[in-house]
Amino acid sequence: MGRYIVGIAGASGAPYAKRVLQGLLSGDHEVKCVISDAGRRVLEVEERLLLTGNTETDHPDLLEWLQTPDADGQLELLHHKDVAASIASGSYPTDGMVVVPCSGGTLAKIAHGVSTGLLERAADVCLKERRRLILVTRETPLSLIHLRNMTAVTEAGATVLPGSPGYYHHPESVQDMVDMIAGRILDHLGVDSELLKEWRGPEPAEYAELE
Ligand SMILES: Cc1cc2nc3c(=O)[nH]c(=O)nc-3n(C[C@H](O)[C@H](O)[C@H](O)COP(=O)(O)O)c2cc1C
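A: This is the predicted complex of the input protein with flavin mononucleotide.
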């Protein structure tokens, strides 16, 4: 199975991170997870998940939040200041990385190669090794700085996949909207999931309404 890196930065969108992690772990993939300080803060606010920053004690809490008690050996939580961790080196092979959610600050650091922490360094490594890098940005409206940084990372080989769900699948719940984005992320990572719903055009009944 594959080996993926999941970075969680301090933007709104913690439910996307949860669903992507669950999708990777249920697919028997190996996951290295790194969370910025602000990412921990957002997990606290949006998911009521209280992590301390101690990776050893946070690990079981993360698994409990993900409702994946059997994924103990598959998930490694790395400290964002540990720039000596495996994923900081290009010699450590991975199948790709997603930063979900990705703040404007982390986007800027990645766009400019400012690798002060493990999350940005791992992203930098993906770019230099020409590996998949997906940035699930979440900000609105966007400044010219955000737009220029998005252009820079796209030119360097990353995929900017904003956390903005569509409505044409007629989502019935917030979870449906989360799953739509998580399914697209997993698809871009090259991971099969049941979350991705293929669009085959409107139902015939919807055409009838137009007539
Ligand atoms: C609850 C909460 C929600 C936030 N939402 C966003 C957001 O959607 N986008 C963004 O760029 N920053 C957001 N921020 C601000 C970032 O967390 C802040 O700029 C932080 O310094 C980013 O650090 P990081 O990039 O190291 O994770 C949010 C902060 C909090 C506490």
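Residues 19 and 191 are 13 Å apart (CA to CA). The pocket of flavin mononucleotide is lined by residues 9-12, 36, 38-39, 41-42, 45, 103-106, 138-139 (CB under 6 Å).
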